Amino acid sequence: MTDFPQLKMKTLVNFPAQAYGRVGITVSKTAGAFYIDLDYTKFTPGPLPADLTTIYSLLWNSITNTYQLLAYSLSPYAPINNPILTGDPQAPTAAPGDNDTSIATTAFVTAAITVNNGISRAVTAAGAVAIAANDRVVAINKTVGAPTAVSLPLAANKNGPVIISDFKRDAGTNNITITATNPDLIQGLATLTLAANGASVQLFPIPGVGYAI
User: Which one in 16, 103, 175, 206 has a CA-CA gap of 20 to 30 Å to 45?
Assistant: First the structure.
């Protein structure tokens, strides 16, 4: 429950029998005693002056029954209009693909660059290779030559095209077999095999269909 401040008033003996309050103030008289009440709904906030550097607040202490004047300096805070921020100011990171007037944080920009430019990587470890959503160039260059199975994500989840390359130049012996995720197809096929040394292919995702060459 809000504890609103009380108002006290001393009057002379010849205080008038009738007293009237202006906007926001109600005066009533009961059994010879005057009561003054504030109607807080009448006090509406207004805009602060642009050159305001300090604001004051009058607080009622219900324990000591006294008013306390508090001063708040606005000098450490940036203005709403043309603020100059220092240090490491932070803001919420918008969702990927957001396109409005919200603030673009470094995290948002980094993610956008990654999606647009993609990642180039060389695969040297043994085993199958899973193409990631942001892969742009995947060079198969295994330390120990062996046939390689490459799996593609659903085209709907792929951010841009990908190049898969036989960087070790041994695909003629160690085929690179590329498989789409069902129900996607690769140029109408479930799998595509690179079977020539130094072979490479660029695949373009088509959401809901698969990949085109």
Answer: 103
* Separation CA 82–CA 115 (nearest Å): 32
Question: At 122, which amino acid appears?
Answer: A
**DSSP state, 164?**
E
How many C-alpha atoms does 136 have within 13 Å on its Cβ side?
8
Residue 203, classed as helix, strand or coil, is: strand
Structure tokens at 150: 């490459």
- pTM, two decimals, is 0.50
How are beta strands 25-30 and 33-38 bridged, if at all? antiparallel
C-alpha to C-alpha distance for 167 and 118, rounded to whole angstroms = 19
- Please state the φ and ψ torsions of residue 164, each to the nearest 5 degrees: -110, 125
Q: Which pLDDT tens digit goes with each residue over 93-109?
A: 988 778 888 888 888 88
Q: Does the pLDDT of residue 1 top 50, yes or no?
A: no
* Domain at 113-212, CATH class: mainly beta
8 Å CB contact between 150 and 192: no
- Of 150, 151, 140, 161, the closest CA to residue 205 belongs to 161
Q: What is the pLDDT of residues 50-80, one digit of tens each?
A: 677 788 777 777 788 887 888 888 777 777 7
d(CA 54, CA 34): 35
